[in-house]
Specification:
heterodimer; A: 8-stranded mixed β-sheet; 3-stranded antiparallel β-sheet; 13 helices; 11 strands; globular; B: mainly alpha; about 70% helix
Chain lengths: ~350, ~300
């Protein structure tokens, strides 16, 4: 039985825009607009893209912190079953599609409720960007770290403290820190507390929502090393959301590049850094500073801003800012296609030429 | 210090901050002094009648008399003793202030939590009701309601309870909305915490400060409003030990006699001074509570 730990299909998250005194629905902000993404057990997938491209929205939908508008999220489901259900959903016959929908109901994280969802909360956890915001300022560290255990009644009351001590030790804090408030810690230590909380339920998948962006550079490296160590120790799977490309290069096995609610390129980290195929990925990578003043490198400066996700451009979403634009880019939306083998995919009409 | 429980440590820190500011100390002292007067009223001024809130009066002579050995702070119209009235009036003030504000807090917090938690229609209904309360001038509404219920101190208290809660509800609701968007709420949801747990262990404890600050500021204001209603003749019966009533008894003597404008200065100055001190004490306390509790002013 092969399985992907997380398998996201055609995920969409639209935020309705209402207008007028009757709050009529006038438009949608298409934050995530049809994303397919699969994570193998034990890997770290880096999800990069500029602010507002939908990477955090995608992560939060997987966590069910908000409900996706459409699409399926399979968690720990057998690949063959997933494929057969997906095939049914794509089939032209309506009865077949209905059957697919009924079958996917029990498998789709996006439609789970109550105790089934609660059971999954044990396996899916999150570390947020800013630990000053993600830790309740009025709670003691021991209560913060114990919260998932207590809320889901996973551990007997008298065993909670022992488990919390164990967790703090895992992230490099000591029992002295149990009876303190978050404001008594440095940024790096706070992030360690947040990581300890995420580990409390022994999860399999952790969403890392820019976990190092709010920290000092020197502390970032420590936290990254800790995350790497934990991943090996507990066989964790990370979805690492960030806009910091070097962080992703250090920690990820694969990279997915998002632009305006869509994934435009996906592949192994080393290959993407060596030979980016999508023009947007190239522009992103060319923006990484090189610590050598002698090196002359070609910097690709994109013109304009990210288009409005309420009304994305026709055809390829990147075409208004792309240097290699042709007529087909304006009219036809490119789909993700396999490129160069080795598990690389790219959504560009002209990746072979440019 | 090291072995102290962190909650105690926080409390000690808060108290130290509180006592560092001279204004807070003044406010606290004023409130404590008034509290002692209210507590010790039976010792300071032993009651003359079965109902201690009835001010004793010697004779029915209409003209107030100045301070003397028998009446250290003078008498009011119809020879009611000023000192007795003020001492037992302090007790009334505490009873009215604390009762009204506690009831306001209770109603305000429940409705604020409901509005902030459920949102949607519940929120809309509760907020529009508060809008109605805010749209009508407070004192006018209070007078109308007191007259409708039937005059007296009890009616004043009931009306202040009915009218006082909307500001608490509003403040709490908006703080709940702010707190609800914080990442630690999302983290709690990802931890599998139930809605009730999130509400009462995360949102309410973090959103309650402004309301508590408002409450401590409002005790003084409540007394002023109650006094205003009594002054207008809508509150307690003549001769009751209640500050508003005392001012009401003295209001004909504000101007004095044609030759001597300040002939009856004690009838205006003494009760006015006492009420001002009381309100000032609570206001300074409220400011201090805000300085100490406001998380933004607390620490970085």
């Amino acid at each position: 039985m092969t399985q992907n730990l997380v398998d996201v299909r055609e995920l969409k998250k639209y935020y309705p825009v209402t207008g007028g005194i009757f709050r009529r629905h006038v438009a949608d902000v298409r934050a995530v607009d049809g994303v397919d993404l699969a994570l193998a057990r034990g890997e770290c997938l880096g999800l990069v893209g500029e602010s507002g491209c939908g990477k955090t929205t995608l992560g939060k939908a997987i966590l069910r912190l908000h409900d996706a508008t459409a699409g399926r999220i399979y968690f720990e489901q057998d690949s063959d079953k997933v494929e057969s259900v997906e095939a049914m959903l794509r089939s032209p016959s309506p009865s077949e599609r209905a059957r697919g929908r009924a079958l996917s109901k029990g498998m789709d994280l996006n439609r789970m409720k109550g105790s089934a969802l609660l059971a999954l909360r044990q396996k899916i956890q999150v570390v947020f960007q800013d630990p000053t915001n993600s830790l309740d300022p009025r709670m003691l560290v021991k209560d913060i770290v114990a919260e998932p255990l207590v809320a889901q009644r996973l551990v007997k009351a008298r065993d909670v403290e022992g488990r919390v001590r164990e967790l703090l030790a895992t992230v490099g804090l000591t029992a002295d820190h149990l009876m303190r408030y978050p404001h008594e810690f440095s940024g790096g230590q706070r992030q360690r507390i947040a990581i300890a909380r995420a580990l409390a339920t022994s999860p399999e998948f952790i969403l890392m929502d820019e976990p190092t962006s709010a920290l000092d550079v020197s502390v970032q490296a420590q936290i990254l090393n800790l995350l790497r160590k934990l991943q090996e120790e507990f066989h964790l799977t990370y979805l690492f959301v960030t806009h910091h490309l070097l962080v992703v290069k250090y920690i990820s096995n694969r990279i997915a590049v998002m632009y305006l609610g869509r994934i435009v390129e996906l592949g192994p980290t080393a290959e993407i850094f060596a030979r980016p195929l999508h023009p947007y990925t190239r522009a992103l990578l060319s923006a990484i500073p090189v610590p050598d003043p002698e090196t002359k490198r070609e910097k690709i400066i994109l013109s304009g801003d990210v288009p409005n996700p309420i009304n994305p451009p026709s055809g390829c979403r990147f075409h208004p800012r792309c240097a290699h634009v042709r007529e087909i880019c304006r009219t036809t939306e490119p789909l993700l296609e396999t490129a160069n083998g080795g598990g690389r995919t790219v959504a560009c009409h002209r990746w072979r030429e440019v | 210090m090291k072995t102290m429980h962190p909650r105690l440590r926080e409390l000690a820190f808060t108290l130290r901050r509180f006592l560092k500011n001279p204004l807070s100390v003044i406010g606290l002292s004023l409130v404590v002094i008034f509290g002692l007067i209210a507590l010790l009223a039976p010792v300071l001024e032993p009651p003359k009648y079965a109902d201690p809130y009835k001010i004793p009066h010697t004779g029915f002579h209409i003209e107030p008399s100045p301070p003397s050995a028998a009446h250290p702070l003078g008498t009011m119209q119809q020879q009611y003793d000023m000192l007795y009235g003020l001492v037992w009036g302090t007790r009334s003030a505490f009873r009215i202030g604390v009762l009204v504000v506690a009831a306001n807090l209770f109603i305000g917090i429940i409705l604020g939590v409901l509005a902030g938690y459920f949102g949607g229609l519940v929120d809309e209904v509760i907020m529009r009701i508060t809008d109605i309360f805010f749209a009508i001038p407070f004192l006018v509404m209070a007078m109308a309601l007191v007259v409708a219920i039937g005059r007296g101190l009890k009616a004043v208290v009931v009306v202040l309870i009915i009218l006082g809660w909307p500001s608490y509800t509003r403040v709490l609701r908006s703080d709940i909305l702010v707190t609800r968007g914080k990442d630690f709420i999302l983290a709690a949801r990802a931890s599998g915490a139930s809605h009730l747990r999130i509400m009462f262990t995360h949102i309410v404890p973090n959103a309650l400060y402004s309301v508590l600050i408002l409450a401590s500021l409002n005790i003084g204001t409540t007394i002023l409003t109650a006094a205003a209603l009594s002054f207008l003749g809508l509150g307690s019966e003549t001769g009751t030990a209640d500050w508003g009533q005392i001012i009401s008894l003295c209001r004909s003597w504000i101007v004095g006699t044609p030759g001597n404008r300040f002939a009856y200065w004690y009838t205006v100055f003494i009760p006015g001074f006492v009420i001002s001190l009381f309100v000032l004490g609570w206001n300074l306390m409220g400011d201090a509570v805000r300085d100490v509790f406001d998380p933004r002013m607390r620490r970085r």
